[in-house]
Design a protein that fits this description.
137 residues; 6 helices; 2 strands; Secreted protein; Cys-rich_GLG1_repeat; signal; GLG1
């Protein structure tokens, strides 16, 4: 009985996992951590709490905040510690993943949806990663 309940709970979770389809010609994209951002948990938990506590997760806001912290420390514009190495790796993985499909970058997809619909009807990131972005360049 418990096994069946677990199966249906998993099925409901995976079928309800958020997909973003702002640029419809590109096809839907599964969002990183289901919110399109690094999480406030995992490798970035302590850094997100220390440097980004005023940011709400989603749309890449935590990733942008932590990336800004890295840059500020590197350029000498912030005192204190940098983002930890494991979090830096997660940030890099997030950015690589997001660059593969325009609908994984929610702010970019919103900004470019009209131009993509007009100029890139044949581009599909699900078939050829980053093809919409390449088309828009």
């Amino acid at each position: 009985m418990i096994l069946w309940w677990s199966f249906f709970a998993l099925l409901a979770y995976t079928s309800a996992a958020p997909n973003n389809n702002i640029v419809s010609s590109s096809g839907p994209a599964k969002l990183w951590n289901d919110i399109g951002d690094v999480g406030k948990g995992g490798a970035c938990a302590s850094d997100a709490e220390a440097f980004c506590k005023d940011q709400s997760p989603g749309d890449g806001r935590i990733a942008a905040c932590l990336s800004k912290r890295n840059l500020d420390v590197k350029e000498g514009n912030a005192a204190g510690k940098n983002v930890n190495k494991k979090c830096q790796r997660e940030l890099a993985d997030f950015k690589i993943d997001r660059s593969s499909h325009i609908n994984k970058d929610i702010p970019l997809a919103r900004s470019c949806a009209e131009d993509a619909a007009k100029l890139c009807k044949e581009a599909n990131d699900a078939v050829q990663p980053a093809s919409v972005l390449s088309c828009l360049r």
